[in-house]
UniProtKB/TrEMBL annotation:
Family per similarity comment: Belongs to the complex I subunit 4 family.
Any one GO molecular-function label of the UniProt entry: ubiquinone binding
NADH:ubiquinone oxidoreductase chain 4 N-terminal domain boundaries: 32-126
Topology in the lipid bilayer: Multi-pass membrane protein
The keyword Transmembrane is assigned to this record: yes
Domain NADH:quinone oxidoreductase/Mrp antiporter transmembrane stretches: 131-190, 257-480
Protein name listed in UniProt: Proton-translocating NADH-quinone oxidoreductase, chain M
Record lineage: Bacteria, Pseudomonadati, Planctomycetota, Planctomycetia, Pirellulales
Length: 609
């Protein structure tokens, strides 16, 4: 687990020792490092080749857990692990990082600095997906910010400084909101509220206990630890994400009123959601994305669309809903509306673009709206029938994986022709199929995957999300289905203008040569995976099924046992308050006068009825 994070950092340190004029040595060393990472993840963990580290698809909880003391005075641990939510994204990160490095051969300026920053970025991305301590998670979240800023600002296009600063400020704003929410949650958390079994389920670090050891030994140590902290006079705070999830669902420590009649949990959810929505990105926090994509070099656009956007969705499903379920329930319409608005706005904006890369960037805003929508539908359908939300969450997760493949492929295909003709004006293209038939064939596969064509990776996630939202709101489901038509519109129009037609109308027509071997090595895996995931979606679903089923069931139980009784109690309290409100005697008399003919007449004589 530590190698997933620190191997790229070690490779970056090694590359820093290579002379800067040895560009090909630096490139091949960096590519080798990313391929080793992908090999470790794929053959060591995804395939059942090693019982110690391979991923068990039948296990719902965390696997390969590492928990070591880091800052004991504040209960901050070096806490790593993955489950069916994070592991598919770890594999996607390793894959896209290797392919994007293959696409980096066109980088000629400051190759050494580029490769070092690229590997530091990979460290941050891996750290986010495997960190289970909130403090550690936040550190890796921030680690990604600086290398991405320089990768856009130094190696980007003509407006690279503007795009890099805009990306930095938007992401930093979201990070500040996240930090406020983290501090709110930490200083209101209390491990004393958890039972020994809940401490075990949270993998709370216990002295003298190996997490992979005997369960009875772990439970006995947890019981002893619980007795110790129960005697403490002050709260025992924690950054443990799993423990915070237990507290959010099995205690009322985050339900206290904070500001303007809203609970701490409500404000924490809002702050965290905004921070993650900026990364998704969702409307109205999306404006940094088109500029960053347009100015970023092709491989960085592949990383940005294929991996970084997924961190927003991952944060919502990993942190927002499990830790703040009460706020998630109450704000379901807000979340779903943001998802649908992002889908529709992104699609219309993509239709309006004449810049090929900007069109693909806005398509990401639209496609990631499905993710937000799928994660937001649960509260209305979970009572008695959690199947719809289960479908929505799995659809959102599949959409993140499918979009990671298709969007990285689309940005790469745009980059291939940009490297040849040095422009992206859709109105100046045309006839590329006649000049580059192999390239065009693979480009159409990738773009049709983004379109959501059945049989390709973009269809499954979108279909599941639209189906899941039907029980929540038929109107939102219809709107989500309508976006498919808009998506087909801008994708087919782009294909017509770029690849079909009689002739190419732009400059540098002589440079339109067929795709080369290096580019084929990047495009072919993306095309194969786009078809494989579309035809055999179980290859992805089987890794996430157990974990998502368990999380849905936990929140379904919380809804039935905690949220619904709480709503009923609040309703009863409101009715009781209304009954004793000022003037109730007069209201009751007026009501009795209206109903006087419906009841027997009574009178009081000498104190008797």
């Amino acid at each position: 687990m530590s190698a997933l994070i620190f191997f790229p950092l070690a490779a970056a340190a090694l590359i820093s020792l290579i002379p800067g004029d040895q560009k090909n040595v630096i490139r091949f060393t960096t590519l080798l490092a990313t391929l080793v990472m992908f090999g470790v993840v794929l053959f060591g963990m995804a395939l059942p080749t090693n019982e110690t580290i391979s991923f068990d698809i039948e296990t719902a909880g965390m696997q390969n857990v590492v928990s070591l003391p880091w800052i004991p005075s504040f209960n901050i641990d070096y806490f790593l692990g993955f489950d069916g939510i994070s592991f598919p994204l770890v594999v996607l990160t390793a894959l896209i990082s290797a392919l994007a490095m293959g696409a980096s051969w066109t980088i000629e300026k400051h190759v050494k600095g580029y490769c070092v920053l690229y590997l530091i970025l990979l460290t941050g991305m891996m750290g986010v997906f495997v960190s289970l301590d909130f403090f550690l998670f936040y550190i890796f979240w921030e680690v990604m910010l600086l290398p991405m800023y320089f990768l856009i600002g130094v190696w980007g296009g003509p407006r690279k400084e503007y795009a890099a600063i805009k990306f930095f400020l938007y992401t930093l704003f979201g990070s500040v909101l996240m930090l406020v929410a983290i501090l709110m949650i930490y200083f209101n958390s209390d491990l004393r509220q958890l039972s020994p079994q809940q401490l075990v389920d949270s993998n709370v670090r216990l002295a003298g206990v190996e997490h992979l050891g005997a369960v009875d030994e772990h439970l006995a140590a947890a019981t002893k630890y619980h007795e110790t902290i129960s005697a403490a006079e002050t709260p025992v705070h924690t950054f443990n994400l799993l423990a915070l999830q237990q507290l959010g669902q099995h205690s009322e420590v985050f339900d206290k009123e904070l500001l303007f009649g809203k609970s701490l949990q409500w404000w924490a959810f809002v702050l965290l959601f905004i921070g993650f929505a900026i990364k998704v990105p969702s409307v109205p926090f999306h404006t940094w994305l088109p500029d960053a994509h347009v100015e970023a070099p092709t491989p960085i656009s592949m990383i940005l669309a294929g991996v970084l956007l997924k961190m927003g969705g991952y944060g919502i499903i990993r942190i927002c809903y499990p830790i703040c379920p009460d706020a998630g329930y109450d704000l379901a319409w807000v979340v779903c509306s943001i998802g649908v608005i992002s889908m529709i706005y992104g699609a219309f904006a993509a239709l309006a673009q004449t810049d090929f890369k900007r069109m693909v960037a806005y398509s990401s805003v639209s496609h990631m709206g499905y993710v937000v929508l799928g994660l937001g539908v649960w509260s209305a359908t979970v009572v008695g029938d959690p199947v719809a939300w289960n479908m929505g969450v799995k659809g959102a997760m599949f959409q993140m994986i499918g979009h990671g493949i298709s969007s990285a492929g689309m940005f790469f295909m745009v980059g291939v022709i940009y490297d040849r003709v040095h422009h992206r004006n859709l109105n100046e293209f045309g006839g590329l199929f006649g000049k580059m038939p192999v390239y065009t064939s693979m480009a159409i596969i990738v773009f049709f995957a983004g379109l959501g064509l059945p049989g390709l990776c973009g269809f499954i996630g979108e279909a599941f999300v639209v189906l899941s939202v039907w029980k929540f709101s038929a109107g939102l489901a219809v709107a989500g289905a309508f976006v498919v038509i808009l998506t087909a519109g801008y994708i087919l129009w782009a294909v017509q203008r770029v690849y079909l037609g009689a002739e190419y109308k732009g400059p540098h027509a002589e440079a339109l040569t067929e795709i080369n071997i290096r580019e084929m090595a990047i495009a072919v895996p993306l095309c194969v995976l786009a078809i494989l995931f579309g035809v055999l979606p179980h290859t992805v679903f089987r890794y996430m099924d157990a974990t998502i089923d368990q999380q849905v069931q936990d929140l379904a139980t919380w809804t039935k046992e905690t949220k619904i009784p709480r709503i009923q109690a609040e309703q009863t309290e409101k009715e009781a308050t209304a009954a004793v409100a000022p003037g109730w005697e007069q209201q009751a008399a007026e009501a009795a006068a209206v109903r006087v003919d419906a009841v027997p007449a009574v009178a009081v004589v000498d104190g008797e009825i």
